Amino acid sequence: MKKDLLGIDDLSADEIYRVLETARAMREIGERPIKKVPTLRGKTVVNLFYEPSTRTRTSFEIAEKRLSADTLNIAVAASSVLKGETLADTAMNIEAMSPDMIVVRHASSGACHLLSRICRSRIINAGDGLHEHPTQALLDAFTIQQHKPDLAGLKVAIVGDLLHSRVLRSNVLLLTKLGARVFVSGPPTLVPRGIEQLGVTVSARIEEAVQDADVVMMLRIQQERMQGGFFPSLREYFTLFGLTEARIRLAKPDVIVMHPGPMNRGVEIASEVADGPYSVILEQVANGVAVRMAVLYLLAGGVEHETAA
Ligand code: CP
């Protein structure tokens, strides 16, 4: 792997398979009575989250601790960011304390690329703006593989707020690299222009996307990123694009239902489906730890690197 994990865009299919294979070994560590190995002993990992997170931040911290790294969480709300310090200055000051890796979530697309250019530490993208959320796509692929070992040829339907979703972008890049057929659907106002160029099929109706699907992945309506009215009401959105039991019956009988979280129950997904027999949503969360352990391990084991100019 390269010095940093900035996006799925940078990974080859072989590198993705290597992460997934390593995650299988890491999952086994999580099943032991003592869930800890000395792999990252002496390494320091800083978790720098400028946006809220439950799953990603927690699973990175658990992954770091299971690998025996020294971990530090920067609480942005209690830091000098509130006094106006820029992202670059904050990162350079953290760098001065010689961490080995910095896990970053930021509202700006490209924030991790900026840090990659100025930091010696390895940078891991934990979600940057509308751009990418690579470890989410890796844990999603790992979860799919547990149910359907060969991703090539699978029909994957991704439905919801496509416009604001970094999870969509990372998943589309990964799934198409591994040969899956990706169908996307959402209200026209929430479909990014030119998305077909990523190799997906756009379906105007959720029913078309879900028909005979092996995997249905629902995306959250990101109201915090919406200024205007992208659709008339949440009730109408659920009527037109919500995943209901009736709609999931259009998919293959062994379909799995995914959601990266946090879920808006009754908006993009009915509770009966989220908690029903096809749902692997909590498996995704559990797999996040193993996949993030794999990423940390592979980045730490890479060759010595030079900081880009
Ligand atoms: N899936 C995801 O990124 O969840 P969090 O925002 O809780 O980290």
Q: Name the structural class.
A: alpha/beta
Proportion of residues in extended strands: 5-15%
Q: How far is the N terminus from the C terminus?
A: 19 Å
List SSEs in N-to-C order.
Answer: HEHEHEHEHEHEEHEHHEHH
Give the tally of β-strands: 9
Q: Quote the CATH topology of the largest domain.
A: Rossmann fold
Unreliable stretches (pLDDT < 50, length at least 5) are: 302-309
If helices are DSSP runs of H or I spanning 4 or more residues, what is the number of helices? 11
- Rg, alpha carbons: 19 Å
Spell out which ligands are present. Answer: phosphoric acid mono(formamide)ester
For this structure, what is the CATH homologous superfamily of the largest domain? Answer: Aspartate/ornithine carbamoyltransferase
Tell me, what is the CATH class of the largest domain?
Answer: Alpha Beta
Mean pLDDT: 94
Provide the CATH architecture of the largest domain: 3-Layer(aba) Sandwich
Provide an overview of this structure.
With 309 residues, the protein is of the alpha/beta class. It folds into 2 domains: 8-132 and 286-300, 3-Layer(aba) Sandwich (Rossmann fold); 134-284, Rossmann fold. 37% of the residues lie in helices and 15% in strands. It contains 11 helices and 9 strands. The strands form 2 sheets. A 5-stranded parallel beta sheet has the order 7-6-5-8-9. Helix 3 (87-95) crosses helix 4. The chain is globular. Mean pLDDT is 94; it is low at 302-309. The chain binds phosphoric acid mono(formamide)ester. Phosphoric acid mono(formamide)ester is lined by residues 53-56, 127, 136, 260-262. Residues 53-56, 127, 136, 260-262 line the site of phosphoric acid mono(formamide)ester.
